[in-house]
């Protein structure tokens, strides 16, 4: 699928690359022992290192390195056994050291890729250029006092991964698909919670436009976009702006821009002339980061199953259709729920129930899978009741509704309401006889060749037995008696 | 005579209860009272009651047999080491009101060994200088005076000038220093004491205010080589809070002194015979060579071909690191702040008022050499040359065990001399900088007086983490030189 902007001078395609800042899940910060918990009282999680007191030194947090390596492995990327930390120097009130420790020249993770899926099931590979670790800055509070700003350093020094994509993205939808897939992988890995509204994942968006076959034109970077929807909107709006400039004979300036979703526009934040000179140089307080292949191998062996692999396995192991498998693995908790239900049971039946009755029940009750009114075990037990013939599929729907309502176990409901399936052939035969007697005319029609009426008889017998008759036995009995 | 003792003698005297730690502390506080107003060696003198309380605790330990290696010994601490609850200024206005909540690793270890701190010694602002004339709290006076020209005030060298002057004048038995390009060795030479810059990574840098992180190293400043060994033993060792600190075991350094040096090979680097080297320094160097030969060492001519680039390289790398290290002094979280209507205004006023001229010069130089378009030509090239300088030393140490050179190109000069020519001032570090760039240990030992009666030092440079051989050779040189002079301005002068 392609996204084309039709201009006065012809068609334009867009070129997009994303730099995603993902906060690493870790107990303590990248270079200090202070806590990383979200939502603490301002400045309650600040060590002397984070506040850059004189003589304080950074010490690398091994768990953060492991998280970065896990993420690199999850992105099928090259892991660099030797990497280095550099200082990015600039002054700002939220940056106590006057520099950010980052990995400029030698990142811990090199090239990798992400497969994204587009509408219609088409897939595309988006290249990953690199992933590096860096410190987050603190936060300025401008709304506490009419004349002064305050600084909260809780976030100062928290570990971030910057994940840079190749300029492979050609449509706003692809950017959305990329971000969703990346977030899914990070969540599966447990390396970032992906909560964009808490700021633990945010994106810088590089956008340019060009005509087919042209080399890249000048790009603009839209900083710190904090939702997938806004990323897609920002790309559309920025691309349209650039097309208009080029078509009016203008020149797009390389600059840093901000996206204002309220006004639906991007505007200049820093022009190229005002760009900082960050004076990067290797941080002399830290040795080069050297890790062992053996350690990386150990991390790799312990990685959880990732969404693509899980999806393929669900298709193969449980016979789940491709589309449904995608739905199930979108969130790990759903995939886990499904697998608990499906294990040792009919996979196809399990997926029908999970994506059908269960999802609609969740929708209706406003619950999530984590606090589902019906547990995976209970749903599994209900499928067992279907499988062993205790109830049939129709009754099962009633039982399920009861389970949603009361939280009771399926066997208790079946027992209490007497919903047990009728498998007594005597009872069924009697019902069949009664129906045939009642509808002698229809029996004659059937026997003269109108076999479509078979369904009518099934329905009538089921009705007679209040839906509890075993449908297969009803079929057998009807067939035997009608065809006799 | 309590202020003339060596650490070793004082330790023995205390152990034998010839005098108490309280007596020793009192003698030093008294000396500080009398001489510090003139020398300005201390920025902060600790309250008498605190010093005496520490001394009393030491006496208690001597009494109950639990005295440690430095128990009761009065020590001065360069005001670059953060000391918990005690103002730590780096000799800068910008930290004039800074009282750390923490104790640096090195000073914590000295306290753990029983040391009694008497005060925080003066230095060049942020350890940037070779004459101790850039301190925001006034210059330090060298206690030595030129014979026949006693009126001329001499510099103690720098940046650890306060520590050197204090130890030389009897205001502390020993003091800590830090050395980035010669800041322990050059003032030691100027003040007639022993100064040891250990291998980079031997002492933790945690809690020591940074000047140039890849070069800064703490070390002892003492009256004898054995004392330097004793004190280094207490200061050194692995610290998980400093990623660049070595986890090698700390040897019994003091025991290295007095060991025979027979058969050791001593290298004389040709490149240190710089044109313009004063004949007196040259002669003293020859004398040192002769002493070591007499002690059984083999003298070998060696070459350190990249020596001539040392100073230029140093004055790129050290300012580059300092420009970044000193960015945290922005007036926001601690130290002095000058308010202004904008954030940039706060930075500009605070830093313009807080930093002295030399610090500002180095920050500007460092900012320049790291800036876009200049990085490759300056910083990157300097790092490559640094690698070559280091390789020079490694190769030389394949042939010899130590190197012997002068410590400084001259004896102590007058306050005001060299002051208007920074390059001339930087030349003071010409013999000390290469060892700093290479990260190898180097020791300055006082070996004699020049014609004007001023002390001269020789420098012994050793292999990475081989302070022991350096101390052995230093001990031999010390024994041969028999340097027993004290400066004119001394706590017990004329007594």
From TrEMBL, chain A:
UniProt enzyme class: ligase
Stretches assigned to the Asn/Gln amidotransferase domain: 336-482
Top-level taxon of origin: Bacteria
InterPro entries given in the database record: Asn/Gln-tRNA_amidoTrfase_suB/E (IPR017959), Asn/Gln-tRNA_Trfase_suB/E_cat (IPR006075), Asn/Gln_amidotransferase (IPR018027), Asn/Gln_tRNA_amidoTrase-B-like (IPR003789), GatB (IPR004413), GatB_C_1 (IPR042114), GatB_Yqey_C_2 (IPR023168), Gln-tRNA_amidoTrfase_suB_CS (IPR017958)
E.C. number: 6.3.5.-
Transmembrane intervals: none
Gene Ontology molecular function terms on file: ATP binding; glutaminyl-tRNA synthase (glutamine-hydrolyzing) activity; transferase activity
Keywords: ATP-binding, Ligase, Nucleotide-binding, Protein biosynthesis, Transferase
Catalytic activity: L-aspartyl-tRNA(Asn) + L-glutamine + ATP + H2O = L-asparaginyl-tRNA(Asn) + L-glutamate + ADP + phosphate + 2 H(+); L-glutamyl-tRNA(Gln) + L-glutamine + ATP + H2O = L-glutaminyl-tRNA(Gln) + L-glutamate + ADP + phosphate + H(+)
Keyword presence, ATP-binding: yes
SMART domains referenced in this protein's UniProt entry, alphabetically: GatB_Yqey
GO biological process terms held by the UniProt record: glutaminyl-tRNAGln biosynthesis via transamidation; translation
Family: Belongs to the GatB/GatE family. GatB subfamily.
Subunit structure: Heterotrimer of A, B and C subunits.
Record's function text: Allows the formation of correctly charged Asn-tRNA(Asn) or Gln-tRNA(Gln) through the transamidation of misacylated Asp-tRNA(Asn) or Glu-tRNA(Gln) in organisms which lack either or both of asparaginyl-tRNA or glutaminyl-tRNA synthetases. The reaction takes place in the presence of glutamine and ATP through an activated phospho-Asp-tRNA(Asn) or phospho-Glu-tRNA(Gln).
Protein name: Aspartyl/glutamyl-tRNA(Asn/Gln) amidotransferase subunit B
TrEMBL record, chain B:
The keyword Nucleotidyltransferase appears for this protein: no
All copies of domain Amidase, residue ranges: 24-471
GO MF entries: ATP binding; glutaminyl-tRNA synthase (glutamine-hydrolyzing) activity; transferase activity
Keyword Transferase in record: yes
Coiled coil: none
GO cellular component: glutamyl-tRNA(Gln) amidotransferase complex
EC number: 6.3.5.7
Keywords: ATP-binding, Ligase, Nucleotide-binding, Protein biosynthesis, Transferase
Domain of life of the source: Bacteria
Pfam families linked to this entry: Amidase
An example Gene Ontology biological process: translation
Active site: 78, 159, 183
Catalytic activity: L-glutamyl-tRNA(Gln) + L-glutamine + ATP + H2O = L-glutaminyl-tRNA(Gln) + L-glutamate + ADP + phosphate + H(+)
PANTHER family: GLUTAMYL-TRNA(GLN) AMIDOTRANSFERASE SUBUNIT A (PTHR11895:SF151), TRANSAMIDASE (PTHR11895)
Role according to the record: Allows the formation of correctly charged Gln-tRNA(Gln) through the transamidation of misacylated Glu-tRNA(Gln) in organisms which lack glutaminyl-tRNA synthetase. The reaction takes place in the presence of glutamine and ATP through an activated gamma-phospho-Glu-tRNA(Gln).
Family per record: Belongs to the amidase family. GatA subfamily.
Protein name: Glutamyl-tRNA(Gln) amidotransferase subunit A
Gene that produces this protein: gatA_2
């Amino acid at each position: 699928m392609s996204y084309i902007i039709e201009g006065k001078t012809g068609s334009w395609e867009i070129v997009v690359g994303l730099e995603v800042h993902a906060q690493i899940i870790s107990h303590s910060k990248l270079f200090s022992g202070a806590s990383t918990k979200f939502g603490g009282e301002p400045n309650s999680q600040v060590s002397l290192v984070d506040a850059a007191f004189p003589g304080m030194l950074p010490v690398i947090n091994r768990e953060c390195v492991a998280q970065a390596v896990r993420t690199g492995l999850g992105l099928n990327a090259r892991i660099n056994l030797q990497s280095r930390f550099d200082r990015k120097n600039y002054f700002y009130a939220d940056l106590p050291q006057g520099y950010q420790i980052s990995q400029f020249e030698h990142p811990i993770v090199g090239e990798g890729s992400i497969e994204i899926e587009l509408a219609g099931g088409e897939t595309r590979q988006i290249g990953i250029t690199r992933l590096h670790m860096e410190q987050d800055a603190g936060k300025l509070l401008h709304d506490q006092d009419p004349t002064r700003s305050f600084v909260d350093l809780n976030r100062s020094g928290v570990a971030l991964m910057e994940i840079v994509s190749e300029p492979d993205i050609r449509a706003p939808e692809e950017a959305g698909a990329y971000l969703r897939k990346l977030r899914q992988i990070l969540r599966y890995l447990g390396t970032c919670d992906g909560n964009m509204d808490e700021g633990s994942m945010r994106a810088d968006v590089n956008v340019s436009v060009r005509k087919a076959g042209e080399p890249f034109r000048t790009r603009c970077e839209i900083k710190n976009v904090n939702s997938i929807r806004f990323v897609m909107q920002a790309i559309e709006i920025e691309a349209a702006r650039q097309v208009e400039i080029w078509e009016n004979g203008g020149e797009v300036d390389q600059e840093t821009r901000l996206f204002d979703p309220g006004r639906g526009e991007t505007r200049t934040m820093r022009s190229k002339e005002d760009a900082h000179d960050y004076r990067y140089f290797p941080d002399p307080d830290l040795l080069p980061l050297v890790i062992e292949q053996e350690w990386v191998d150990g991390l790799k062996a312990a990685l959880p199953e990732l969404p693509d692999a899980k999806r393929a396995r669900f298709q193969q192991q449980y016979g789940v259709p491709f589309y449904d498998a995608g739905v199930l693995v979108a969130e790990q908790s759903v995939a886990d729920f499904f697998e608990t239900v499906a294990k040792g049971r009919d996979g196809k039946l399990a997926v029908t129930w999970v994506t059908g009755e269960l999802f609609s029940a969740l929708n209706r009750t406003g619950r999530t899978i984590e606090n589902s009114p019906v547990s995976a075990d209970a749903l599994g037990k209900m499928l067992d009741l279907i499988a062993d013939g205790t109830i049939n599929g129709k009754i099962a729907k009633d039982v399920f509704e009861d389970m949603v309502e009361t939280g009771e176990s399926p066997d208790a409901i079946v027992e209490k309401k007497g919903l047990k399936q009728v498998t007594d052939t005597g009872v069924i035969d009697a019902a069949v006889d009664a129906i045939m007697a009642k509808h002698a005319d229809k029996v004659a029609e059937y026997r003269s060749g109108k076999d479509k009426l078979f369904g009518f008889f099934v329905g009538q017998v089921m009705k007679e037995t209040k839906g509890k008759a075993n449908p297969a036995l009803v079929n057998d009995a009807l067939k035997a008696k009608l065809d006799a | 005579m309590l202020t003339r003792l060596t650490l070793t003698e004082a330790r023995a005297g205390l152990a034998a209860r010839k005098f108490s730690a309280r007596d020793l502390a009192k003698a030093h506080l008294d000396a500080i009272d009398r001489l510090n107003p003139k020398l300005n060696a201390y920025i902060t003198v600790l309250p008498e009651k605190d010093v005496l309380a520490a001394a009393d605790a030491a006496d208690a330990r001597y009494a109950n047999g639990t005295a440690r290696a430095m128990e009761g010994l009065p020590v001065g601490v360069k005001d670059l080491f953060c000391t918990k609850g005690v103002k730590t200024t780096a000799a800068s206005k910008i930290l004039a009101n800074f009282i750390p909540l923490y104790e640096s690793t090195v000073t914590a270890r000295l306290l753990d060994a029983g040391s009694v701190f008497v005060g925080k010694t003066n230095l060049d602002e942020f350890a940037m200088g070779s004459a101790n004339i850039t301190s925001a709290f006034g210059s330090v006076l060298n206690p030595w005076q030129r014979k026949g020209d006693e009126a001329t005030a001499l510099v103690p060298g720098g940046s650890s000038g306060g520590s050197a002057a204090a130890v030389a004048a009897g205001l502390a038995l020993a003091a800590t220093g830090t050395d980035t390009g010669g800041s322990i060795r050059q003032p030691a030479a100027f003040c007639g004491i022993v100064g040891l810059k250990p291998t980079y990574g031997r002492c933790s840098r945690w809690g020591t205010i940074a000047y140039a992180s890849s070069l800064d190293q703490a070390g002892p400043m003492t009256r004898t080589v054995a004392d330097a060994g004793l004190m280094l033993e207490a200061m050194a060792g692995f610290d998980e809070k400093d990623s660049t600190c070595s986890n090698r075991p700390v040897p019994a350094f003091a025991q290295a002194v007095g060991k025979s040096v027979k058969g050791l090979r001593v290298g004389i680097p040709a490149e240190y015979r710089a044109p313009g080297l004063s004949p007196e320094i040259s002669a003293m160097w020859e004398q040192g060579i002769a002493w070591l030969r007499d002690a059984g060492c083999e003298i070998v001519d060696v070459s350190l071909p990249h020596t001539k680039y040392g100073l230029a390289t140093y004055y790129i790398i050290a300012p580059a690191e300092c420009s970044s290290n000193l960015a945290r002094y922005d007036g926001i979280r601690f130290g002095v702040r000058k308010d202004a209507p904008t954030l940039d205004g706060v930075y500009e006023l605070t830093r313009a008022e807080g930093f002295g001229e030399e610090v500002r010069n180095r920050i500007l130089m460092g900012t320049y050499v790291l800036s876009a378009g200049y990085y490759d030509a300056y910083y990157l090239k300097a790092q490559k040359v640094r690698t070559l300088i280091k390789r020079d030393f490694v190769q030389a140490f394949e042939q010899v065990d130590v190197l012997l050179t002068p410590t400084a190109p001259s004896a102590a000069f007058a306050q005001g001399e060299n002051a208007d020519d920074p390059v001339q001032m930087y030349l003071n570090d010409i013999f000390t900088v290469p060892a700093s760039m290479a990260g190898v240990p180097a020791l300055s030992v006082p070996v004699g007086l020049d014609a004007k009666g001023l002390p001269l030092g020789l420098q012994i440079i050793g292999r990475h983490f081989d302070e022991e051989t350096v101390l052995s050779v230093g001990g031999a040189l010390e024994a041969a030189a028999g340097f027993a002079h004290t400066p004119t301005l001394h706590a017990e002068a004329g007594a």
